[in-house]
Write a structure and sequence with these properties.
Blueprint: H1 2-41, H2 53-63, H3 68-81, H4 85-90, H5 93-100, H6 107-120, H7 132-135, H8 143-152, H9 163-173, H10 182-194, H11 200-216, H12 235-241
C-alpha cells in the first residue's frame, strides 16, 4: 500500500513538473499574443478605469458569482453612497445591505463593511495594504481577491485564478487537470504564476486579458478557437485537431 501511494505521488510530481516546463516554454509568446489581443478586444468596464485599491476591492467582491451586467449597474451606485473606506465604515449595516441589494450573497457586503471598520479604526484615512499576504488577513479576503487588489491596484506581480483564468490555463497548458481537485487546483495556480510576465505593470494587463479571454472566447460552454489569439500553442486545440 505504501509503495503504491509513493508511486502515485511520484507520478503526480513528475506530471506537475512537465506541466510547469510546458508553461515556462510558452510564457513569452503566450503573453505577447494574449496582451496584444486584449488591447484590441477588451470591454470598457468601469472598474478597469481605476487603480484605487478600495474601488478595485468593491468591484472584485461584487463580481464574485455575479454577472458582469448586474455589477455594472450596482458598482457606480454603491460608490456614490460610499466613495471611501471611511464613509463605508461610518455607515449603518442596514444601509450597506440596502445598497448591496440585487447582487445577492450578502456575506460579501457584511465582510466589506467589517473590513472598512477594522481599517478605519487603525487610522485616518483608512487604506488597504499593498501586499497580498497582508490583504488576506482582512475579513472576506481570500487568495484570489488579495491577488486581484495587489495586482490591479498596486501593480504587483501576483497571480490570481478565478474560474475563467483556471479554464484558460487548463485548456492551454494541461487539459488533464481538474480544477475541482485540490492537488490539480494547486498546479493550476502554479501554472498561472509560471505564465506571468516579469513586471507588475505587464501582469495587470496579462491577468485582465486571461479573464477576458475566458469570458468572451474560451467560455465554459463553447470554445471559440477560431477567435483565440493563443490557439497555436493550446494543448486542447492541438488534441482536437489530431
Amino acid at each position: 500500500m505504501t509503495q503504491r501511494v509513493a508511486s502515485k505521488r511520484g507520478r503526480s510530481a513528475a506530471q506537475r513538473e512537465a506541466v510547469l516546463r510546458r508553461a515556462a516554454g510558452i510564457r513569452l509568446r503566450f503573453g505577447r499574443l494574449l496582451r496584444a489581443w486584449y488591447r484590441s478586444h477588451h470591454r470598457d468596464l468601469p472598474w478597469r478605469r481605476t487603480r484605487d485599491p478600495y474601488r478595485v476591492l468593491v468591484s472584485e467582491l461584487m463580481l464574485q458569482q455575479t454577472q458582469v451586467s448586474r455589477v455594472v449597474l450596482k458598482y457606480g451606485e454603491f460608490l456614490e453612497q460610499f466613495p471611501t473606506l471611511d464613509v463605508l465604515a461610518r455607515a449603518r449595516p442596514a444601509r450597506v445591505m440596502e445598497a448591496w441589494s440585487g447582487l445577492g450573497y450578502y456575506a460579501r457586503a457584511k465582510n466589506l463593511h467589517r473590513l472598512a471598520r477594522e481599517l478605519a479604526a487603525t487610522g485616518t484615512p483608512a487604506t488597504l495594504p499593498a501586499g497580498a499576504e497582508a490583504l488576506r488577513l482582512l475579513p472576506g479576503i481570500g487568495p484570489y481577491t488579495a491577488g486581484a487588489v495587489a495586482s490591479f491596484a498596486y501593480e504587483q506581480r501576483e497571480a490570481l485564478v478565478d474560474t475563467n483564468v483556471a479554464r484558460v490555463v487548463r485548456r492551454v497548458v494541461a487539459p488533464a487537470l481538474d480544477a475541482t481537485r485540490g492537488a490539480d487546483g494547486g498546479t493550476i495556480w502554479a501554472v498561472a504564476r509560471a505564465l506571468l510576465p516579469r513586471t507588475g505593470r505587464a501582469t495587470y494587463v496579462h491577468t485582465q486579458a486571461l479573464m477576458e479571454l475566458g469570458a468572451l472566447v474560451c467560455t465554459a460552454r463553447v470554445r471559440h478557437c477560431g477567435r483565440c489569439p493563443v490557439r497555436s500553442m493550446c494543448a486542447t486545440y492541438e488534441a482536437d485537431r489530431s
